Every structure is written in structure tokens, then in C-alpha cells.
Amino acid sequence: NAVNDATGSGTGVLGDTKSLNTYFSSNTYYLYDITKAMTGVIETFTAKNGSSLPGSYSVDSDNVFNATGQRADVDAHFYAGKVYDYYKNTHGRNSFDGNGGTIRSTVHYGSRYNNAFWNGSQMVYGDGDGSTFTSLSGALDVVAHELTHAVTERTANLQYQNQSGALNESMSDVFGYFLDPDYLMGEDVYTPGRSGDALRSLSNPEAYGQPSNFANYVYTSSDNGGVHTNSGIPNKAFYYTVQSIGKSAAEKIYYRALTRYLTPTSSFSNARAALLQSAADLYGSGSSTYNGVASAWTQVGVN
Ligand SMILES: O=C(O)[C@H](CCc1ccccc1)CC1(C(=O)N[C@@H](Cc2c[nH]c3ccccc23)C(=O)O)CCCC1
Ligand SMILES: [Ca+2]
Ligand SMILES: [Ca+2]
Ligand SMILES: [Zn+2]
After folding, report:
1. ipTM above 0.85, yes or no
2. Ligand 1 contact, 145 CB (< 6 A)
3. Mean pLDDT for the stretch of residues 139-147
4. Closest protein CA for atom 2 of ligand 1
5. CB 3.0-4.6 Å disulfide test: which of 8, 61, 217, 244 passes with 20?
């Protein structure tokens, strides 16, 4: 309850200081945020480099989470709060389930684990091996990517394979852009020893081995039909869309399509239609916004 609500501070993965919503109980501070208009909370755990979930609450004795080993915890907690605020303030959505569901994260998962995931119930982040990745919760676009998998699961529920899976992936990269508006994905945690690179590029998918046109769709059985490869095609359509209609209109159209028109088996062509329907609903068919969406998808070979 409110009497236990505390404001702490912490050091993030990139060495930056940030304020934290914490919880005080029996001489211990928890990464446990009760300040949002939720029925649930935002809570952060550590797996202590094991693989059992959720692990133990991230705690501190003085409400200053500045130990090196707490950096991933700090960012997972802080960025989860940011993504919660984004969905609530921009789209009126109360948490990933629209019903104030608890947002749970676990960091320090596995040993030198170069990945992150939404497991159907919570977000999970590895620390990386220090060469390919540093702790993956250190990137706001990665946290937004993972939490958007939860939103997608509760709305369109795009099947995680082939074209619907690539759309699922793209939706997560797209909302990663809305939280961190540059066209790179994961740049803050990818190859800490090299600047200027990223895991993916929405403006130039080919830079990281993804196609950007349907003519170059990759038919493969790996990675659930290449969901992390073929997402380059809808990602490029998104890039063209933002360049033509702007971030704000794109935001409204993408959220509307995701929550009202896309279905578990939607194809790339179905996504074009869903986005056009959303544009027509909000701006009118034949509007410049509508036409901008149409041409974006035509440019990536999807009609
Ligand atoms: O959420 C997702 O789509 C990815 C989930 C990957 C996963 C799936 C199932 C079980 C465990 C892990 C995680 C992210 C991802 O795009 N992973 C890619 C790229 C990647 C990251 N680390 C890797 C290590 C090896 C190979 C590929 C990768 C992948 O798993 O393909 C999203 C943002 C950053 C990491
Ligand atoms: Ca980015
Ligand atoms: Ca890098
Ligand atoms: Zn993903």
C-alpha cells in the first residue's frame, strides 16, 4: 500500500543514473512499483545467472541500486515502467492485457545469455557475453519489443511462424521504434565494443541480412519460418509509412490495426488491408495518410 511506496535511484546498464519506483518492507527495498493505475504491479526479479523463473526479487538495503550487478535490474524495471506509461498515455491501454496485469521481468537469466524473450507470462533478459551483447534490458527498444509480444498475444495473437510470425516480429520492432524513435533495433546493447551498428535496421533491413521486399521473402524452416528475417519486409513498409505520414499518424494506425483488425493468421497482404482500414477509419479513404500507407506496402511488393 501507499505507505510502503518508495522512490529510489539506480545506475543503468550504460552507467546512467535514474529514479526508481520501489517498495519498502522490513528494512528492504524491492524493485516493485505500485505507482501505476494498475490492478497489478511492475516487478523485477533476478535469476542470479540460473534458469529458473522468476527467480528472486531484486532488492537493496539502502534504495540506491548502484552495484554493477544491479544495472540490468535497474533498466528492466525502469524501462518496463516507461513502456507501461507509453501504452497507457498514448493508446489508453492499461498494461499488456488492457486490464492492469502485472508486468514481471527477470534479469541475469542464464550464463552469458545473448538473448531476451517473452515467455507467455513475463519478460526474461540475458546479460550477453559482453562481446555480442551487454545486458539486453539496457535497451528501451528491446524492452518495448518484448512487452509488445505480450500486447500482440492478447490482441491479434499473430501466430509465431511464417508471414504472421514475421508480422508479430515487426509489430514488436515497430513499437520499439515508437518508444525509441530511431530506425535501429537494439543498438544500445548490441556489440558494446563497436559503435554505429545494431541488431536490425527498419530503414535498411539489408544492412543486417534481412530482405526489404516480398520478392526476396526467405522460405526457410528455421526460426519459425524466418520470423526474424522476413520481418524486414513489414519493417521497411513501416519505415516508408513513417517517412510519408509521420510518427503520430503511424502510431494510431498501427495500434488500431494490431488491436482491431489483425488476426492470428494474418498475411502481409492482410496487414496492408488492416492498416488501410485503420487509416480509412481515422483519416478517410483516399486521404493522403491512406495513400501513404498504400504506397509504402506497394514499394515492398505487397498489395
Ligand atoms: O523477442 C524476440 O523476438 C527474440 C526472442 C528470441 C527467443 C525466442 C525463443 C526462446 C528464446 C529466445 C529476442 C530478440 C531478437 O530479436 N532475437 C533474435 C536475434 C538474436 C538475438 N540474440 C541472438 C543470438 C543468436 C542468434 C540470433 C540472435 C533471435 O533470437 O533470432 C528481440 C529483441 C532483441 C532480442
Ligand atoms: Ca533503437
Ligand atoms: Ca554496437
Ligand atoms: Zn520478437
Report:
1. yes
2. yes
3. 99
4. 117
5. 8
